C-alpha cells in the first residue's frame, strides 16, 4: 500500500490519544478545520464563526455530544457552541456533525471557564446548557464542582437579558447545591418553584434511561437572566 500522509497522521493521533477511535480521529482531521474554533484570548465574533446572525447557545462539557447534536438538529434556527476538553468527545461530535450535516454547531476544545472569560462577550448568549457536569461526589472533592457562585456569576454575566441557564444532574446533593447557588445569584430568576420539568428539547440519554429504570432521579433547573 502506498504511504498516505493523512492516514499516517490519523493513526499516530489515535495512538497518542489512547481511547480515540479511528473514526473520531478521521473526523478531527477532516472536519476539525471547519468546525473547531481555536481557543484565543480574544472575543469570538459569532457572526463570523457561523456566517450568519442567530441566537447562540453555549454548552459546557458535552461529553460524546449525542445530546448536543440532537438539540442542534432540532433547532436549525439557532447556533450552538460546544465546549469540551476530552479529545474522543470532540472527535465523536465532529463525526456526528459530518454524518448529520449540521451547520449550526462549532466546538472549542478548551477549559470552559477560560473560554467564558476570554472568548464569550458579556450579555451575548441566548442560553447556556450544563448537562450532567462531573458530580465530584466525595465530600472532600465537592469544591471541584463547576457550579459554584463565582462561575454562576460569570455565566449570568454572559447571558443576554431574557437568556436562560439550563442545568441537569442525576446527583441529588449536586441538584440541591445548584438550586441554592443559582437561586442566590441576583442576576438569575427561577422559571419554576424549585426544579423544572424536563424541557422537551433535552433528550433522555442512554445512561439516564438506565438510571430511571433503576429508580434513580434526574433534576433539571432552568433559570432566566433578569
Ligand atoms: C459527566 S460528563 C457529562 C457529559 C455530557 N454532558 C452528558 O450529559 O453525557 C462531564 C463532561 O464535562 C467535561 N468537562 C469537565 N470540566 C470541564 C471544563 N472545565 N471545561 C470543559 N469541559 C469540561 C468533561 O470532560 C466531561 O466530558
From TrEMBL:
Biochemical pathway: tRNA modification; N(7)-methylguanine-tRNA biosynthesis
Catalytic activity: guanosine(46) in tRNA + S-adenosyl-L-methionine = N(7)-methylguanosine(46) in tRNA + S-adenosyl-L-homocysteine
Enzyme Commission code: 2.1.1.33
Residues bound to S-adenosyl-L-methionine: 59, 84, 111, 134
GO-annotated molecular function: tRNA (guanine(46)-N7)-methyltransferase activity
Record field: transmembrane: none
Binding site for substrate: 138, 170, 205-208
Region of interest called Interaction with RNA, as start-end residue ranges on this chain: 140-145
Pfam families, per the entry: Methyltransf_4
UniProt keyword annotation of Chloroplast present: no
Source taxon at top rank: Bacteria
Keyword flag Manganese: no
Gene Ontology cellular component annotations, sorted alphabetically: tRNA methyltransferase complex
Alphabetized UniProt keyword annotations: Methyltransferase, S-adenosyl-L-methionine, Transferase, tRNA processing
CDD domains for the chain: AdoMet_MTases (cd02440)
Family assignment from sequence similarity: Belongs to the class I-like SAM-binding methyltransferase superfamily. TrmB family.
HAMAP family: tRNA_methyltr_TrmB
Role description: Catalyzes the formation of N(7)-methylguanine at position 46 (m7G46) in tRNA.
Protein name: tRNA (guanine-N(7)-)-methyltransferase
Annotated source species: Massilia violaceinigra
Lineage per the UniProt record: Bacteria, Pseudomonadati, Pseudomonadota, Betaproteobacteria, Burkholderiales
Amino acid at each position: 500500500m502506498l504511504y498516505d500522509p493523512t492516514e499516517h497522521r490519523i493513526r499516530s493521533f489515535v495512538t497518542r490519544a489512547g481511547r480515540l477511535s479511528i473514526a473520531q480521529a478521521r473526523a478531527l482531521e477532516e472536519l476539525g478545520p471547519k468546525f473547531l474554533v481555536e481557543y484565543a484570548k480574544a472575543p469570538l465574533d459569532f457572526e463570523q464563526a457561523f456566517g450568519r446572525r442567530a441566537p447562540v447557545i453555549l454548552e459546557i462539557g458535552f461529553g460524546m455530544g449525542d445530546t448536543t447534536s440532537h438539540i442542534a438538529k432540532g433547532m436549525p434556527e439557532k447556533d450552538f457552541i460546544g465546549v469540551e476538553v476530552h479529545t474522543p468527545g470532540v472527535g465523536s461530535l465532529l463525526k456526528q456533525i459530518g454524518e448529520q450535516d449540521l451547520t449550526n454547531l462549532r466546538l472549542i476544545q478548551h477549559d470552559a471557564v477560560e473560554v467564558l472569560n476570554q472568548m464569550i462577550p458579556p450579555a451575548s448568549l441566548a442560553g447556556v446548557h450544563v448537562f450532567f457536569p462531573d458530580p465530584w461526589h466525595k465530600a472532600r472533592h465537592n469544591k471541584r464542582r463547576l457550579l459554584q457562585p463565582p462561575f454562576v456569576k460569570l455565566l449570568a454575566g454572559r447571558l443576554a437579558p431574557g437568556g436562560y441557564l439550563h442545568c441537569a444532574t442525576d446527583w441529588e446533593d449536586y441538584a440541591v447545591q445548584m438550586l441554592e447557588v443559582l437561586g442566590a445569584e441576583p442576576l438569575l430568576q427561577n422559571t419554576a418553584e424549585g426544579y423544572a420539568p424536563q424541557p422537551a428539547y433535552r433528550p433522555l440519554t442512554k445512561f439516564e434511561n438506565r438510571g430511571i429504570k433503576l429508580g434513580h432521579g434526574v433534576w433539571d433547573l432552568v433559570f432566566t437572566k433578569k
